[in-house]
Amino acid sequence: MTISRIHHITFMVSDMDRSLHFYRDLLGFELVLDQVRQNVPAYDQVMNLQDVKVRVGLLNDPSKQAMLALFQYLHPSPSQRQMNNLFVGSAAMGVQTDDIDADYQRLQHAGVRFSSEPVDVVRDGKVAARLVYAFDPDDLVVELYQPS
Amino acid sequence: MTLKMIHHHGFTVSNIEQSLKFYRDVLDLEVVRISERKELPSYDTILGYENVHLRVAILTHPVNDFVMELFEYIRPPSTKRELTNYYVGSSHLAFEVDNIDEQYEKIQAAGFDSINPPVDVMRDGRQIARAMYVLDPDGISVELFQEFADMVGR
Question: What is the pTM of this model?
Fold first, then answer.
């Protein structure tokens, strides 16, 4: 086994300040780094782009076992397009909660948009989980997930 | 605050079997289950479509129990479009590896490729990592990196 662990999830966002409000202030992730990176030839090569300039926000999840990296491209200019789970390559990050209904109320009160109210997922006659899809400021899907 | 942890990360893919040749056979993630999901009103409500029919693969990593989900939409059908990292809303997963050059040979031998071969990531004159973006069968980029120094940059 040479893959030792999943290290982080990256989301490309259009406005770092707005996204930090969502992930840090509303979801409770801990900001550990917020910096602009440019003149990093490795980035140009890894991403196959020229003169990459990005603002990177690195956050620990509440358990500190995984990290979320937010990238706001400053160069090249980011493009925005329609978001929808039916597009191949769309992502959904699942965040586990103890009390999905309380989180739903709290986040909705703070202006977060959801696809529905929390719903029980019933499989083989049993409630397997309770879920809801929240949308981040760029319409990335953050699934709130409460296991049964 | 009752949110506890990132539990899983999922991607919409065009064909689960094709994706497993990458995530299971090359990256060595373990398949927990592959299931067909349809006639589940809860999915219709959450996803916002009628009569959703999905195939879902749940994979895990043996070390830190992280769960990865692959969603193949059968109804409504999925759509492919260009994927590049500077589209807002793009996402990728990053895996830490012990030896990235070995991984590069392994993915190439398996018929996959990366955007570029592994490159040294330098910061403040020292090498902090060696990294590459591998492309999965749908062109979703998966970062592999070998860490030499604390990525947080202290």
Answer: 0.91
Read off the pLDDT of residues B95-142 as tens digits, 9 standing for 90 and up. 999 999 999 999 999 999 999 999 998 888 888 899 999 999 999 999
- Assign domain A92-147 to a CATH class: alpha beta
Identify any residues that bridge with A11 across adjacent strands, giving them in sequence order: A70, B91
**Shortest CB distance from B88 goes to which of A65, A80, A119?**
A80
Scanning B83-142 for CB atoms below 8 A from A yields: 83, 85-99, 102-103, 115-116, 119-123, 131-133, 138-140
Reported ipTM: 0.88
Domains along the sequence of chain B with CATH: 8-75 (3.10.180.10), 93-147 (3.10.180.10)
Alpha helices in chain B (DSSP H): 16-23, 41-47, 100-109
Q: A86 to chain B: nearest residue by CA?
A: B78
CATH topology of domain A8-75: 2,3-Dihydroxybiphenyl 1,2-Dioxygenase; domain 1 (3.10.180)
Nearest CA in chain B to A80: B88
Smallest CA-to-CA distance from A6 within B112, B94, B153, B103 is with B94
Residue B75's identity, in one-letter code, is R
